[in-house]
Amino acid sequence: MVGRLAGRFVGLGITGSIAAFKAVDLLRLLRAEGADVQVLMTPSATRFVAPLTLAALSRRHVDAEVLDLLPDGRIGHVLTADAADAVVVAPATAHWLGAMAHGLAADVVTATCLATAAPVVVAPAMDGDMYAHPATQANVAILRDRFGYAIVEPESGALASGQLGPGRLADLGTIVDAVVAAIGDRPVRRPDPADRPPRLAGAAAARLARDGDDLAGRHVVVTAGGTAEPIDPVRFIGNRSTGTMGVAVAEAARDRGARVTLVAGMVTVPLPDEVEVVRAETATAMREALHGLLGTPGGGPGFDVLVMAAAVADFRPAAPADRKLPRTEAGLRLELVANPDILAEIGRVVRGLDEAGAAAGRPFRPRPVLVGFAAETGSLARAADKLARKRVDLLVANDVAEEGSGFGTPTNRVTILAAGGAEEALPLLAKREVAERILDRVVAALDARDAAAQTGPDEPPQETSVP
Ligand SMILES: Cc1cc2nc3c(=O)[nH]c(=O)nc-3n(C[C@H](O)[C@H](O)[C@H](O)COP(=O)(O)O)c2cc1C
């Protein structure tokens, strides 16, 4: 049987409702009807349902960042808008209805709807009082009466909030019927696949075969490599770090669905693709790069996780020469000054503490998970002290003098210490496997943090509505 949407290209917009998980089944139903689907998500929606699942089912990258370009430089939401035979937004939040009614294109879903000439189908889902509010009703009326969008009204029933009433996402079959009806017998707008967003192929498709997308929606910042502290314009004090461990963490986080920013110092291994790279070759530059990433204008943290795998120099020449120093028989005496301990500084800042450890500002909410590395030679006895002093959640300690461990090797033997006192010595493992083990603990820490934010005394639960 030929599906009712055979040959059609449909944009599926998902917004941040508890009903977002139902969009996975809606995607399946649209595909079963023969539709070629591009998934569009608001950033909130990526917190409710994993983009990896939707990418695997649609065979396309999920478009969740309005400011990202496609690899070939085209603008994703404009391409989808131009090619779509219909755009369906399900579930649509109260917030999204308001943004759409007023043309605020801060997310891919709104931007696509604004840019398209295709019919738009909207299925709201929210708690009953939110849906009944005059603001929401006015926004729905604008979409229906002024924009001509087809509204698939929410159903009445038991809501996840415990309420009984209207607000539940409409039956998925009803939403598919609405898409079919909205398209009617219009001609297919862009039958040529080259005019639609590209399908996944090669390495990206292979990566989807991996299960596990437990960092989707998270922003992970990783530092890698050594630093080069200038003596003069051509000479520097460096170290033996190659960046292998940090790059392995960045790649593993990317493959687990995270948005990754790699702050790269002196790195001799190839840098990964599909991560944002910020170059910072001195300790001072790395400090500036991290402080630049730290806060958002809204006062929240700019990232969820910081893994500080770079070997940052403890000292730098006090007064680097601005011209190449000439060779002299008398030799050269260098005065070195201490670099700031970047991780300890960030550990304080995110907790709103000053240098003395006293409360000095607002702690970050939610607080990012911090992971430090400690390269020791001979004994790991100082590691627990470092963990406490730097106020990190996890400290990965290794004896860099041990065979097969440390700088420039493909393997590492590490001990992971946790802020709660737990300590686990891992066997000699490939650095990528070490990275995965570290990220397993990071995911657990993030989940615990988010759970605590719902109930904890200092992190009040968010106002939510859960149909
Ligand atoms: C657990 C939870 C469930 C939520 N469910 C809904 C919902 O069903 N409908 C809604 O309008 N907002 C809901 N919200 C609030 C939205 O997520 C919030 O307004 C968000 O800013 C919407 O972002 P968006 O417009 O990008 O989708 C929920 C929030 C939480 C924390």
What report would you give on this structure?
- The C terminus is likely disordered.
- The protein is α/β, with parallel strands linked by helices and 467 residues long.
- Strand 16, helix 14 and strand 17 form a beta-alpha-beta unit.
- It is elongated.
- The chain folds into two domains: 195 residues, 3-Layer(aba) Sandwich (Rossmann fold), CATH 3.40.50.1950; 232 residues, Rossmann fold (3-Layer(aba) Sandwich).
- The chain has 15 helices and 21 strands.
- The strands form six sheets. It has an eight-stranded mixed beta sheet, with helices on both faces. A five-stranded parallel beta sheet has the order 2-1-3-4-5, with helices on both faces.
- 32% of the residues lie in helices and 19% in strands.
- Helix 1 packs parallel to helix 3, helix 1 packs across helix 9 and helix 4 crosses helix 6.
- The two termini are 35 Å apart.
- The structure holds flavin mononucleotide.
- Flavin mononucleotide binds next to helix 5.
How are the SSEs ordered, and which strands pair?
Elements: E1 9-14, H1 22-32, E2 36-41, H2 45-48, H3 51-58, H4 76-83, E3 86-92, H5 94-101, H6 108-115, E4 120-124, H7 128-132, H8 134-146, E5 150-151, E6 155-158, E7 164-168, H9 172-183, H10 202-208, E8 219-224, E9 229-230, E10 236-237, H11 244-255, E11 259-264, E12 276-279, H12 283-294, E13 305-308, E14 315-317, E15 336-338, H13 342-349, E16 369-376, H14 383-390, E17 394-399, E18 411-412, E19 414-418, E20 423-425, E21 429-430, H15 431-455
Parallel strand pairs: 1-2, 1-3, 3-4, 4-5, 8-11, 8-13, 11-12, 13-16, 16-17
Antiparallel strand pairs: 6-7, 9-10, 14-15, 17-19, 18-21, 19-20
Helix pairs in contact: 1-3, 1-9, 4-6, 5-8, 11-15
The structure holds flavin mononucleotide.
